[in-house]
Amino acid sequence: MTKDFVHQTIKKFNSDSYRLLDMLLDIQQEYGYISKDNISVLAGELNQSEADIGQTITFYHFLRSKPQGKYSIYLNNSIVSKMMGMDKIARQFEKESGIKFGEVTKDGQISLHYTSCIGMSDQEPAAIINEKIFTNLTTFRVKEIVLAMRQGKPVESMYCTNFGGGKNSSPLVESVVRNNIRRSGPLLQLNYVPGQVLQNKVSLMSPDEVISEIKDSHLRGRGGAGFPTGLKWQFCRRAKGARKFIFCNADEGEPGTFKDRVLLTEKPEMVFEGMTVAAYAVGAKEGILYLRYEYKYLETYLKQVLQDLHGKNLLGENISGISGFDFDIRIQYGAGAYICGEESSLIESAEGKRGEPRPRPPFPVEKGYLGYPTIVNNVETLCSTVTILQNGANWYRELGTDESTGTKVLSISGDCLYPGIYELEWGFSINDILEMSGAESTQAVQVGGPSGALVPPSQFNRILCYSDLATGGSLIIFNQTRDLLRDVVMNFTEFFVEESCGSCVPCRNIPALLKKKLEKIQAGDGVREDLKEIEEWSNIMQINRCGLGHTAANPVITSLKNFRKLYEALIQKDVNFDSGIDLSAAVAESCEFVDRIPQL
What we know:
Glutaredoxin, six-stranded mixed β-sheet, single chain, Arc Repressor Mutant, subunit A, globular, four-stranded mixed β-sheet
């Protein structure tokens, strides 16, 4: 019977090895894990080695090769979750289930796991239970949940009520997730009409005119890198390829970020329309929404939206009456890997492989998915293109600053009265954010998630824009009661240790070494040489292949730069030590060796 289902799954995806991740997720959905027998059948049918399939499984956090509980509880252990009481929730789960995290009950009913940020920083502590999200957990709720599990009830019945904000009240979204929109701008206002841009604007424009309008708006990518969107589209349009693809990057794995989750819930039609506009501009016929596994609870809802768009001739053939304009979108789920937020890693993952970054050049716009020219745009970026075409590039340039046009959707969480989503014009300061969100006695603000910077009060007047403090959208607020080194910096550093894909020597090793340095310093055994070595090691991170690897030391480096007194207060005075190790030379030599290994 097991082999029959696996064979059916392979057939469902046309024996396409590039759809391996979909096959693995379906098999796990059926059996709870992916057995050796499953792997053997997949290898034989897809003409791959069992080792190749095995290494894909082990790369992703949510893929399992061993049996787990009928109810798999993944509790978020990010810094905001811990700030909001995660530890007592974890202890309550252990007490009620009778097991520790990482274990399965003897009857196979319950298993407990920790996981990184699940995009719920505005309503922590939160957990994923069998692909469903549970937010604002309390010890009493834990008792109720575990009792229901003991009684064999379905996960959906464990919700107290469906009280999500905005479209989360849709019966298609089985969730208690709130959207917590505190301030709306052009993207989040209610005057958007699905399909209007395609029917009234794009249908009257040539692809080159669409690209020109986006270029004239000066829109830059909202995922963090800030590359000019119109220029990226132009490169892809000019690239040679029998096929072209549009990817929407909805893998917002940066701790503290949840804006894309809200946009996908409130404005999914706008996201898909943005993908369709991009397809028209570059000449693509196929689109993929790469959605992080943590948001799989939105599956039924998003598929219904896609179906509705087909019914309105906003997807499919001759879209909006434009002869020859055919485009369709499918959803590709990730399986838990922070690195897949990087565009080339995302493409590798969508091809059924480990989500490791590709060497560049060539860039995805030249050679991306399946080797064809590919656009990868962030959720917020694609929504912005729709508002630009609706209102014009001149209108968009009037928003924000000269260097940073338009609005920015922010995810605000941590020590504030009003955590949630704020859409603002570029050009606001950190002080503005603190005032709007009801933050008091603020000690520090993490701008841009762990890969960004830990900013002190002396810099709260700095402006968020591409020319000063650029950010993908996450701001985490810490008040005076927080231990920045022991709690915040250590949590972020452990995150990077866990999430490194391991491809590059510096990223594979230095975060782990930095963690040991932090432990040494916090134990009172640190010396001044430790601080010097931390600074030297940070420079080596630029050897890494991808942008995420370049920033993996940022939690320690930016906190040492901006809060040096916290480190110096812990180190031994007038003691120095020279390890005699030239780490830079050793890492460079290791990298040269790795680069000589053939890419199989």
